């Protein structure tokens, strides 16, 4: 098996995550799809680090994980705040700027 | 999978078996994430994808990242997701019908184009050298090697990330904190409010749940003297969930009453 297969898997997972962000309307599911995209990018980082034989890709993947954790904390707090004021976690309902 | 121009060497037998077992499963799980209706099921499928990615990291000799993936992602982040799902309401299932007309076909076509571009890009890329692997880099231990990079070359980024973590924690606290606009009603206030109502029907408090002689439980509405169930005796949460047992089957029949 070629090591590039990991890269193909990463591309497929990233694409699926991107579809999810566009198609799904529950804000929490949209968030989970963003996490999936970040994870797919991490897999590509680790695979490229393996191809190049150094650990820098792993360090970058580690940083990505930390930043993703921050993003989840703040994003979920925003979702809770929106839910508290609008009683709905759907991204289509939060369209106050449009009107 | 067809090996195109990208010649980066091959993996050992066991690793390819692992890959061909786990990769289709993780793709299926992530597709399921898009298709299932309930957010909780999406979360479980995402946890599965994350665990299989952790296995891939470990298979690729990135031991530290694999463990961190399990601890941080499937442990902390997914717990946080489930926590928020519980808070926001598990029953708020997404209606899958589309609001914007034609969004779904456009999204799928765009995704196929995007994925095709990515995959063909990977297929056409050449590195002109075989895979080196982590054997040399991991010579002093994988975690030691990462620590060496993290605390020498990337120490500034590390400090910035720590500042980011603190800021995110503070931001979440500020966002999630809600100021109470009025003080909470005490028992005294509630009692006064009951007596100030137009009719004094509920002045003594609502009836308790349960048919005491036969089935004493919170999910059975109490029976009124005329044999009708009293809906006000049940918690509104149980009513919304539909976890109520019909109280009429615990009603005494005519013969039993005469005994």
UniProtKB/TrEMBL annotation, chain A:
Keywords: Membrane, NAD, Translocase, Transmembrane, Transmembrane helix, Transport. It holds the Pfam family Oxidored_q2. One of its GO terms (molecular function) is oxidoreductase activity, acting on NAD(P)H. It is found in: Membrane. It is a multi-pass membrane protein. The chain crosses the membrane at residues 6-23, 28-48, 60-83. One of its GO terms (biological process) is ATP synthesis coupled electron transport. GO terms for cellular component: NADH dehydrogenase complex. Its main location: membrane. Belongs to the complex I subunit 4L family. This is Unannotated protein. It comes from freshwater metagenome.
């Amino acid at each position: 098996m070629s090591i590039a297969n990991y890269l193909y898997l990463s591309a497929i997972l990233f694409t699926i995550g991107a579809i999810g962000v566009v198609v799904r309307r529950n804000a929490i599911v949209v968030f989970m799809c963003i996490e999936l995209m970040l994870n797919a990018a991490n897999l590509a980082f680790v695979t490229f680090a393996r191809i190049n034989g150094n650990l820098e890709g792993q360090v970058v993947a580690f940083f990505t994980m930390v930043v993703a954790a921050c993003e989840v904390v703040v994003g979920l707090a925003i979702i809770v705040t929106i839910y508290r004021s609008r009683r709905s976690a759907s991204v289509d309902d939060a369209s106050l700027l449009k009107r | 999978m067809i090996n195109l121009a990208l010649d980066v060497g091959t993996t050992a037998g066991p690793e390819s078996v692992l890959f061909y077992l786990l990769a289709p499963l993780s793709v299926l799980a992530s597709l399921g994430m898009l298709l299932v209706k309930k957010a909780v099921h999406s979360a479980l499928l995402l946890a599965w994808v994350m665990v299989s990615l952790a296995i891939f990291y470990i298979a690729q000799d990135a031991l530290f990242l694999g463990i961190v993936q399990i601890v941080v992602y499937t442990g902390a982040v997914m717990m946080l997701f489930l926590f928020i799902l519980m808070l926001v309401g598990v029953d708020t299932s997404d209606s899958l019908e589309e609001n914007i007309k034609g969004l779904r076909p456009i999204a799928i076509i765009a995704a196929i184009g995007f994925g095709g571009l990515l995959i063909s890009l990977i297929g056409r890329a050449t590195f002109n050298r075989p895979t080196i692997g982590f054997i040399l880099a991991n010579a002093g231990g994988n975690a030691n090697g990462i620590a060496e990079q993290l605390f020498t070359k990337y120490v500034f980024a590390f400090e910035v990330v720590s500042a980011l973590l603190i800021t995110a924690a503070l931001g979440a606290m500020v966002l999630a904190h809600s100021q109470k606009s009025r003080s909470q009603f005490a028992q005294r206030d509630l009692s006064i409010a009951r007596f100030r109502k137009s009719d004094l029907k509920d002045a003594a408090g609502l009836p308790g749940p349960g048919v005491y002689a036969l089935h004493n439980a919170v999910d059975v509405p109490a029976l009124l003297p005329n044999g009708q169930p009293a809906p006000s005796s049940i918690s509104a949460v149980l009513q919304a969930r539909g976890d109520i047992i019909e109280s009429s089957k615990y009603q005494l029949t005519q013969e039993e009453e005469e005994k």
